[in-house]
From TrEMBL:
<feature type="transmembrane region" description="Helical">
    <location>
        <begin position="66"/>
        <end position="85"/>
    </location>
</feature>
<keyword id="KW-0472">Membrane</keyword>
<dbReference type="Pfam" id="PF02361">
    <property type="entry name" value="CbiQ"/>
</dbReference>
<dbReference type="InterPro" id="IPR003339">
    <property type="entry name" value="ABC/ECF_trnsptr_transmembrane"/>
</dbReference>
<keyword id="KW-0812">Transmembrane</keyword>
<protein>
    <recommendedName>
        <fullName>Energy-coupling factor transporter transmembrane protein EcfT</fullName>
    </recommendedName>
</protein>
<feature type="transmembrane region" description="Helical">
    <location>
        <begin position="247"/>
        <end position="265"/>
    </location>
</feature>
<keyword id="KW-1133">Transmembrane helix</keyword>
<dbReference type="GO" id="GO:0005886">
    <property type="term" value="C:plasma membrane"/>
</dbReference>
<feature type="transmembrane region" description="Helical">
    <location>
        <begin position="42"/>
        <end position="59"/>
    </location>
</feature>
<feature type="transmembrane region" description="Helical">
    <location>
        <begin position="114"/>
        <end position="136"/>
    </location>
</feature>
Length: 277
């Protein structure tokens, strides 16, 4: 059976046992630390912790491989774009220029530019596991409850929950429609030419859109019949109470964030510069 992308994966792990609110707060602190710092030492420390947490979660890499490869592809494009539009950004930041080789005009490869883009790459590797874990280890209903718990209006929280629940449904509908169309002789395999495959894909997209609109109408009617949105507040069946592990995790995350910001900004410069002695 195919693994569905970005859907809740049930496991017995310390990460799954944490409440959705704890994981949301920790993810916000973790992302803030990774985005605000360019200190390589801090980023490498966060990377090691991020990998360790991923291992503890018991989520297998193959279960998120498609999304991971998709993100890494855009990381590759991002690095190329950074170099094309600003090939001397590292030289400007670190104030030195160690040229490895010249290409053309202002385009050359320097240690400073490689180090700058290396830091950007580490940022992605720090945040990606945390983001994937937050999504696949948190049940959509619990996620909605956690959003509401930190102050997000419950209507918005519930909309996010429905969107996350809908991702696996779309994937199942896509596979069912694709198999039905292939049974009718519409080839979507690599045997067909690319243009023909794109044209044949429209026979899947249109029924998928129509079935999605039909499901939206059914859900909307069901929510209206149950009086959704009538009251200003609501209770949550899937809401988890805070336990000792939740408090320890939040405090630990706050300490890591505080330490990362202190190390980054204590000298007034958030860029760690190994080129200046």
């Amino acid at each position: 059976m195919a693994v569905e992308m970005l859907s809740y994966i049930k496991r017995s792990s310390p990460v799954h046992e944490l409440s959705g609110a704890t994981k949301l707060i920790l993810f916000i602190m973790w992302s803030s630390a990774a985005m605000l710092t360019y200190d390589t030492r801090v980023l490498l420390f966060l990377l090691v912790i991020s990998i360790a947490i991923f291992i503890v979660s018991k989520i297998h890499l193959r279960e998120v491989s498609f999304v991971l490869f998709f993100i890494l592809f855009f990381l590759f494009l991002n690095n190329i774009a950074i170099y094309l539009f600003s090939p001397q950004e590292g030289v400007k930041i670190y104030g030195t220029s160690h040229v490895l080789f010249d290409i053309a005009s202002r385009y050359n490869v320097t240690l400073e530019q490689l180090f700058y883009q290396f830091n950007i790459t580490i940022k992605y590797f720090v945040v990606i596991p945390a983001a994937l874990l937050f999504i696949v280890t948190t049940h959509p209903s619990e996620f909605a409850a956690s959003l509401n718990r930190i102050g997000v209006p419950y209507k918005i929280a519930y909309a996010v929950s429905i969107a996350l629940r809908y991702i696996p449904d779309i994937q199942r509908d896509f596979r069912n429609i694709a198999q039905s169309q292939q049974a009718r002789g519409i080839d979507l395999s690599k045997k067909e030419k690319l243009f023909k495959r794109i044209k044949n894909a429209s026979s899947i997209i249109i029924p998928l859109i129509l079935s999605s609109l039909d499901r939206i109408e059914v859900i909307t009617n069901a929510m209206e019949l149950r009086g959704f949105g009538k009251n200003k507040r609501r209770t949550w069946y899937s809401r988890k109470p805070f336990k000792r592990a939740d408090y320890i995790t939040i405090v630990s995350g706050a300490c890591i964030l505080g330490a990362a910001l202190f190390i980054t900004f204590h000298d007034g410069n958030r860029f760690y510069n190994p080129f200046v002695k």
